[in-house]
Design a protein that fits this description.
The chain is α/β, with parallel strands linked by helices. It has 9 helices and 7 strands; from the N terminus they run αααβαβαβαβαβααββ. Strands 3-2-1-4-5-7-6 form a 7-stranded mixed beta sheet, with helices on both faces.
């Protein structure tokens, strides 16, 4: 994903088609901008309540979260982000990015399965969770387990940002052929139903300009 976000120069025609021209790749860059702004707005809303605790799940290097924190010019006393991923291969890049942005003290990386979040991060109670770029690779059972685990550890009133994926431009076959990526398509209504099943309530939805990613913001109700 980081290659798509950075729009690295393609090495050949096939690379250009996958990274620059594929509609899903273009929509992913739109999603980055939209989600980053949503995170900025959520952080600003919560700043008056004390230090903001974020969690990025399937975070990779944490591009969305790191960009939001750096644009707000916040200190470690004001915000801390826990970035968890099953694989740690993007952490070194993420740490370098945090150093470049001057927010290393605000970021922690952790390898682990977020479905076991109570064991992996037992003392962390996030009030903002970013779940972007992951659920399209999870089947319904895996997604239900993940959402249930996150709902359990989030503070009441906390927000979760995630998304569905559609393919109106038929970009999925080429990504599957080139990168072996297999997406599970879910509409905004599909995502809403999954969130509501575990106790979240959807409070906002916006679709990026390509019409591929419906981005959903949910809340863990104060009283359930």
């Amino acid at each position: 994903m980081e290659i798509l976000y950075r729009k690295d120069a393609p090495v050949d025609l096939l690379d250009r088609q996958a990274i620059l021209d594929n509609p899903i790749s273009r929509a992913s860059r739109n999603r980055l901008q939209t989600v980053t702004q949503i995170l900025i707005d959520l952080i600003q809303t919560r700043q008056s309540d004390g230090p903001v605790v974020l969690m990025g799940v399937g975070a990779g290097p944490g591009r969305h979260v790191q960009t939001a924190i750096s644009r707000l010019q916040l200190s470690a006393d004001e915000v801390h982000a826990h970035l968890i991923d099953l694989d740690d291969d993007a952490f070194e890049y993420g740490q370098q990015l945090a150093e470049q942005l001057g927010i290393s003290d605000c970021i922690s990386f952790l390898q682990g399965d977020a479905r076991e979040i109570q064991t992996v991060l037992p003392d962390v109670k996030p009030n903002i969770v970013k779940l972007i770029g992951l659920i399209e690779y999870l089947n319904d059972q895996q997604l239900h387990e993940l959402l249930s685990a996150l709902h359990t550890i989030m503070v009441p009133g906390g927000n979760l940002v995630t998304h569905g994926i559609l393919d109106p431009w038929h970009g999925a076959p080429s990504l599957k052929r080139i990168f072996k990526l297999q997406h599970i398509r879910r509409s905004a209504d599909d995502v809403r139903q999954m969130l509501e099943t575990v106790g979240f309530r959807v409070i906002d939805q916006v679709t990026e300009p390509m019409g591929i990613y419906p981005i959903v913001t949910a809340v863990k109700p104060m009283i359930e």
